[in-house]
Records
---
Amino acid sequence: MELKKIGELITSNRILLGPGPSNYDPRVMKAMTSPLISHLDPEIYPILDETVELLKYLFKTKNEVTLPMSGTGTAGGETAFTNVIEQGDKAIVCLNGFFSERNIEMIERCGGEVIRIDAEWGKPIDIEEIERTLKANPDTKILSMTHGETSTGVLTPLEEVGKFCSQTSTLFVVDAVPTLGGMDVDVDGWNIDICYSGTQKCLSAPPAMAPITFSQKAIDVIKNRKTKIQTLYLDAIELMRHWGKERKYHHTLPIIMIYALREALRIIYEEGLEERFKRHEEVSQLLKTHLTDMGFKLFAQEGYRLPMLTAVELPEGLSEREIITKLLKEYNIEIGGGFGKLAGKLLRVGLMGYSCSKQNVYYLISALKEIMS
Amino acid sequence: MELKKIGELITSNRILLGPGPSNYDPRVMKAMTSPLISHLDPEIYPILDETVELLKYLFKTKNEVTLPMSGTGTAGGETAFTNVIEQGDKAIVCLNGFFSERNIEMIERCGGEVIRIDAEWGKPIDIEEIERTLKANPDTKILSMTHGETSTGVLTPLEEVGKFCSQTSTLFVVDAVPTLGGMDVDVDGWNIDICYSGTQKCLSAPPAMAPITFSQKAIDVIKNRKTKIQTLYLDAIELMRHWGKERKYHHTLPIIMIYALREALRIIYEEGLEERFKRHEEVSQLLKTHLTDMGFKLFAQEGYRLPMLTAVELPEGLSEREIITKLLKEYNIEIGGGFGKLAGKLLRVGLMGYSCSKQNVYYLISALKEIMS
């Protein structure tokens, strides 16, 4: 490559209706242009505090250890697991898609021993099987569930499992990467011990950070570890010494991304959680109605469908790659295809945060009709 | 905190002359406002490739595995260590400041056994002691050195140690967090096996990413590991499957920060490495001359002083906190104080990337004179 030929950055102005990232409000971009200050500047501390308070509002939690980790969603999952799992710890993992499968990989890298609870991709997890497995393994350190499976569009209810875990010593660990900010994620009400997400889906900030929250029960487990957490970068307690009252340097924070997140959270607060969830529900319903009217079959089981991510099966004779490419090239719309073992078989449409609008649904449906006509 | 009182983000327009972050060129901000596209959009791949090519130019390397990790400088260090260190591996760590001390923490969390080579803070490491220690421990997996110690302003030459390591099976791991982009870091020429940095110092992009490069010798070590790397997020080989030709999803990349980094690297290429290094050297010399004229004593030993970070001892009767606070509040200038065991005893002035200008030196010196008069 000739370096001198690397020109000014030019990117298309996509309508982001894939599985994430979503578009963000111009206010978020404006916040990013605020002058950079240091992670140790006295001015940064109120900004950190405000970001944490807004995150607590969004997570519906009073948890003291609530912060955005300096990495994307995957770093959030790894932070959850690596802070609590030690060599030989038992972990029950509920599996019904690509992202829950990946949790196994992360837990095993921490030395955890995984007990699988499988559901068919497209179906929610059987709650009774969870309770049975947990009863049979009372020494289980964590139970990991994926609230919304981005790979299939399936929503798994959490409340009952949380209630069950709360009566045991097991920590309830929840992946809320696609759901947080788009539907109810009631951390305290549902007895979730560790909940993590990403900034680039229903929060509508750029990808860069992973909001996470730890209950006191989780913190107690971390404080009673026999061995040190195997990473310094993802050590939540050490990092809280910077985000919390101590103001002790841990690592250089991604300040501009914190500016963006704070503004995205302000926008969420202004809209109000219930209004925001209702918007996601209604706009998603509009999309689902139009897609089924066009003959597409919704992939996720009825009653367990995510509002922010709709997966439909491709009828015979239609090419996933062709539809996705045409939408991108001719309409500037991004949607996703099948992921993992569903590659080539699905279309996945995200309606997340700022991207979740009737305008986008109508444009997408019109574009799809033109392409398929 | 009343959430409704959290207002629009307003930050001071600081002149960043601390130990990092530095200010960035307005062109970098402009790049950040380019529309967000997805980490899987076909348009992103040339952008990733260009960023990697520009990083190779900066690192002076042909290493195939060269990329910015999705975390700040500390994540870079952790990526270096966690990818190669397994339980019980020997690591020689050269120590002469806060950041090299921290490397021990990270290596031990990976299960490594550390052999320390200490130098007094403010002094470089004794090269002969390194050679002796390495000869006495031929089974050493890595030798870790900090090119520039941000906590003391000391520069440790690397070339001779690199030559020595290249004749052994030991990997030469270098922290170039403050030095990359501000002085010569010749990865291939100096036989460095793993070299990591951060975006927010002499590269003058926002803090968010950690450029890193691995030699073939390092990759061979990683590929011959007995156990899996303990983190998925920092697994360089897995991540290269996204950054490299395979285009396989690993995690959602921090796209906007990649836009910023690419533009910062373009600016470096346009200036030219030798011109850029010369500017850092000259502007730093101007600062050092003025500070010593004012009666300050340079902390780092002569002949081993970093251009981009100058530490001076505080004369009796002057308060570190007072000077730093006045500079910040009355002049909008950030500089750093002593770090770790040097807290309260030093002023640390960074002249990094875009912040490294004669204009900034003259303003700082004038401000210091006013404060001390």
---
Amino acid sequence: MLQGKVLVAQGGGPTAVINQSMVGAVLEARKFRNVSLVYGALHGVQGIVNEDFVDLTQETTHNLEMVAETPSSALGSTRDKPDLKYCRQILKVLQAHDIRYFFYIGGNDSSDTMRIVADEARQANHPIRCIHIPKTIDNDLVLNDHTPGFPSAARFVVQSFLGANLDNRSLPGVYIAVVMGRHAGFLTAASALGKKFPDDGPHMIYVPERTFRMDEYLSDVRRIYDRYGRCIIAASEGIHDETGTPIITRFAKKVEHDAHGNVQLSGSGALAQLLGDQVKEKLGINRVRGDTFGYLQRSFIGCVSDVDQREAREVGEKAVQYAMWGDTDGSVTIERTGYYSVDYKLMPLEAVAGKTRTMPDEFISDSGTDVTDAFRLYLRPLLGKAMPDAFRLRHSKVAKVLG
Amino acid sequence: MLQGKVLVAQGGGPTAVINQSMVGAVLEARKFRNVSLVYGALHGVQGIVNEDFVDLTQETTHNLEMVAETPSSALGSTRDKPDLKYCRQILKVLQAHDIRYFFYIGGNDSSDTMRIVADEARQANHPIRCIHIPKTIDNDLVLNDHTPGFPSAARFVVQSFLGANLDNRSLPGVYIAVVMGRHAGFLTAASALGKKFPDDGPHMIYVPERTFRMDEYLSDVRRIYDRYGRCIIAASEGIHDETGTPIITRFAKKVEHDAHGNVQLSGSGALAQLLGDQVKEKLGINRVRGDTFGYLQRSFIGCVSDVDQREAREVGEKAVQYAMWGDTDGSVTIERTGYYSVDYKLMPLEAVAGKTRTMPDEFISDSGTDVTDAFRLYLRPLLGKAMPDAFRLRHSKVAKVLG
């Protein structure tokens, strides 16, 4: 085992359980005698190049456990997506601080950073173990049955649709909710598990794995509305036309871009507004409401899956075990081994890095606007214990007197 | 005691606990021997004039209990605000069905309907007890310490801001969240209880009880952003300028109206968008995100205050007891009798009907953009048990090596 310091960092969008992974890694690392100190980098790779380190060796176990239960990255995060030069700077700092174990909790971009840093370290002949710990509410990491953070975000989406459906049933109209997910529709698809009775919403689910056609959308809304007097739609923020152009770009007047030059999809209610306006204008339906779940879905406190918590903790712990007892870099992955149980593996960084997983065809119905039972079976155990449930009155109608 | 049928109905925007009141009234009414049957009206007063009644005498206690725990109006609701003619039609139907006890669960409009119906019944010499059962997430009924539905919605708002603050701390920027409340700022003010550490958001809270000035808003955002590198804003959908014109009307291009001719405030992300655009354009801050809590805040399942559940149940039960053992119409109100305990009273319908309560001055800070400790004390017990809490790492900084 290498002798030296351990560094833990968190990257990308926060999740409700990302601190479980951080605490899992920190507590496990503190057990090893070859580890001199356990550092955390503030705001991910940005904190590394700025030498913004904190010493987590001197934090109580008790407070670490409380932080583990707190959503969002306690060390701070970053949207920086390092290039080769940036990664060389990272390595320089790791060397200067005698860091021999580097754990980065994040999504595709973070795994790609780890791949480059590990390559550079090998070439520079600096022995260091680089382990990527998976995290993303989008559930879009390859080789993983699912990723920590997704189950809790999915649970929030399910509970939101359960409530939204009850609300819409009480005051009928068209209701559109926009869910996060640029390329992968898993989180939007989760809305299907908010459906209990056959006439419950969501009645249509639009994911980025399928082409969105405005005319088909409008005729679907018309059909459902005429049937039930109401209609609930779940739409991924990343839905796009046949050329791959996001719907938000195609119909909106003004488009914003994020730090990576991608079209800004979250943080505004523009898509829900647009989809609602089309229903009002083209179908003449009056009561149309749109919500954008926004940042609530990834950091909501008090709506966490216990399965997600446990697994997020374990991937952090396993990462340290792989780093100490194994002798390779890699990305920790989740494999489903039973219904329901999981085990973890260490995959080569280049097998995971920078790749995007989307929903397999078997999870999407032929109509393209619903999920299959295979998806329902896949998701159900991830949501965890004590899922709220919705009940209806089963009443007999009273005969009219006045008529 | 009058001999005949009981009718229960639900009106206005749903809440997470409105079914507790309905079930409280139904179960209590089913105990009385002078009650022949217990009816529910589908979609409030609209269901009454259409004779859309269901028989709740033949529903199991068990299922009623499950429905009580389910958010949103199980009988359906309505936005109809009956005038005199409409109320006479209501009375005609009540007479035709031999209804002698009428319980309407709702807000100001519903209490006003009850006032008119009760007046008309007296004039028509039709003995009937009309009891209004309070409900509204806006917390804007006079003579009530608070109203059922508000505590659970407030809890959702608190938990949302707890999470949003953690998210914003991890990826800093300006974050704006728009909360429901046309005239009363209670629900938006609840966001203050999501604040734990001194630098936590929300940093500014804008309620309809104070005039919103765009220039002051922008300079406040500038000040906080320069200090903390981030800024979180809670804004009521009803914020308005010095003439009372909603900000959404004043700066938006297109304005929609609801069924009552009021400017449509909910169901779109327009205000959050507007407040965010101003920050980007006038202050040149790049990362600006806006969320509108929308319908989630009033019907979210699994984030309910146990205090709210209990009280909502009791106002329903008390309503029946007042109707049976007393001999007057009225509106059930909640009075705070200890810290924390409540008792219920029956107030004359005309004392509550159609009146709007707003936040008292003692709940709003001198700055006009924060709450006072009096408000924090007021709200805290209403949120109920097992409120989630947020924890931070207490780490010591590591000295730089490269510098």
